[in-house]
Amino acid sequence: MPLIESTFPASKRCPCGTGLTYSECCGVYHGSTRKPAPTAVALMRSRFSAFVVGDAEYLLRTWHPLSRPERLDLSDSPIRFYRLDIHDTVAGGPFDSAGVVEFEAFYKGTSVGSQRERSRFERGSDGVWYYVDGDVS
């Protein structure tokens, strides 16, 4: 799968809500950089931003192989995510092998609302964090 560089402005605030610019925050994980997220919450934030900027390749690359879909098309999505709130984290730090991040992602478009999810993450044998699955409420 070819790497696609984001057209999201590098100097704009990162969609994940840290207050940093995209190039200082999630942009370092997307595209050709392939820098791995150091924690489960950093991966969660970068995956949210990938949904915002349309980086399906990054989402697939950071999805655990046992639960990853074969393909992901974000081009025709009727909604647009615009805000992320992190509600809880359990483990998922630099020295952990698993973690949980509970978040709420707000969207608008053909419908307006939010998705609250408690997501599981695992660090692979390669030392990289992967999204495993989540319970949506």
Automatic annotation (TrEMBL):
SUPFAM superfamilies found in the cross-reference section = NTF2-like (SSF54427)
Q: Which Pfam families does this one have? A: SEC-C, YchJ_M-like
Which residue windows are coiled coil?
A: none
InterPro entries attached to this UniProt entry: NTF2-like_dom_sf, SEC_C_motif, YchJ-like, YchJ-like_M
All copies of domain YchJ-like middle NTF2-like, residue ranges: 39-134
Q: What HAMAP family does its record include?
A: UPF0225 (MF_00612)
Family (UniProt): Belongs to the UPF0225 family.
The protein's name is UPF0225 protein CUTER_05265
| Species whose genome carries this gene | Corynebacterium uterequi
